[in-house]
Amino acid sequence: MKKVWFIAFFFLTINSYAQVNIIPQPAELKMPESAGAFIITAKTPIILEGSGLENPARFLNDYLKQVYGFTLPVVKKAGATPGIRLNFDRLDHPIPGAYNMEVDAKGVYIGGDNATGTFYGVQTLLQLLPTTKASSLPVAYLTIKDYPRFQYRGLHLDVSRHFFPVSFVKRYIDYIALHKMNYFHWHLTDDQGWRIEIKKYPNLTKAGAWRNGTIIGHHPGTGNDSIRYGGFYTQKEVKEIVDYAAKRYITVLPEIEMPGHASAALTAYPYLGCTGGPYEVQQTWGVFNEVFCAGNDSVFTFLQNVLDEVMPLFPSKYVHIGGDECPKESWKKCPKCQKRMAVNKLKDEHELQSYFIQRMEKYLNSKGKTIIGWDEILEGGLAPNAVVMSWRGEQGGIEAAKQDHDVIMTPGNYVYLDHSQAKKEDSLTIGGYTPVKETYEYEPVPKELSAAESKHILGAQGNVWTEYMANTSKVEYMIFPRVSALSEVLWSPSEKRSWNDFEKRLQEQCKRYTLWGTNYNKTFE
Ligand code: TNX
User: Which of the seven top EC classes does this enzyme belong to (predicted)?
Assistant: First the structure.
């Protein structure tokens, strides 16, 4: 009998040893010469040695409950009892989120630079657990010293083209947390729907959140089916989501699009357009000529009032104001826009767009916020304090960094997660083919930049435009496994990255997706 137990323990231990497949790869990972495993059971305490670590403990317990069906007791002291000790260590990494971790016979010790670091240590611990449901969970003995490479590690979600319920947005935020990422860019307004309640302008959600057509697209069979489709988040729900994210050390970055991609707002309040309308919430994807009128002061008043309601909901120091894909046709035909150009000595409509963005920047700066805009905001002159999101390749980001502006890299050919990731993709996608390997091999700091200019690259972000993602399962199918690849690009020291090694660890990661009940693309290559 004794022998059987010994053999069982031996296999359990060896098995757990083999399961050290952490994504993103930690900066330093050491396995002891004599392998072993600490076993977590429902009796193992979580010991809060440091104060203010309730959030990491709660996340750990929520995860255990959801995946393995049990939780652990949370205590302040446990004497000599082995357990999971959450604490702080003095670490002087410049970017928040560093942690140390040690697993031995005494249990698991996690020491973060602050609660964020301890939280990331917990994320690593979750990846040391078995990828099948069990009631005793071996954790291999090891030592880790880990810290993030970039300060901005983002994932975006477009909720305009398709609308997703609060429950899914929370799940999405969990995915971000599980990958040690820290920004959720919430694309709340676009031509196909306005998705955030604004009390001063009720028509934005009464009319602007609804369109005639459940699915949108130009491909055969995806056009208008005339069924009313839409939805929006109340301010109460927004607060709930922002709070949910904060408990996971994630900042929610709201995006209110201007001056283009404005059909939903124009439908709700036609005076905001150059012609006065009528307009309609769009039923297909694309770029539309009717945009916010740049010659009308009441447009600026409207946008300031909208932002006055948006800002208190989002503690983020950044507010994203779009700026992409704004056709200039309606401004060319609009006497008020032409007059504005003459009065302000603007030589073309690009400069008028720059005037628009700069005027909004001034307002947001006066409220203590920094604007982020898509790389089109470079055209006609960059607003003085703007951060640029480089999406049409890397050139916009390079240009902005050279002009001494901060940059977030989101180049389409690497990190657009709406592109298909399988060579033979049956479902409809947009934008081309970007396999997981391409995302993995992305390097956010362009070679063209000097050391000083490189400091402006805050990080990168995966963008998830949902023209062809009509439900949550399709979103998961599109983002996984590429989000796992992106997390390593953003977190791990560049010299630690290796596609061959990642590909092996990804096998285990796919088992975790299954454990989470998450859809993913299984034919990525
Ligand atoms: C361009 S990326 C857009 C989006 C579309 C996307 C489709 C960007 C700033 N604008 O409006 O959804 O292409 O890939």
Answer: hydrolase
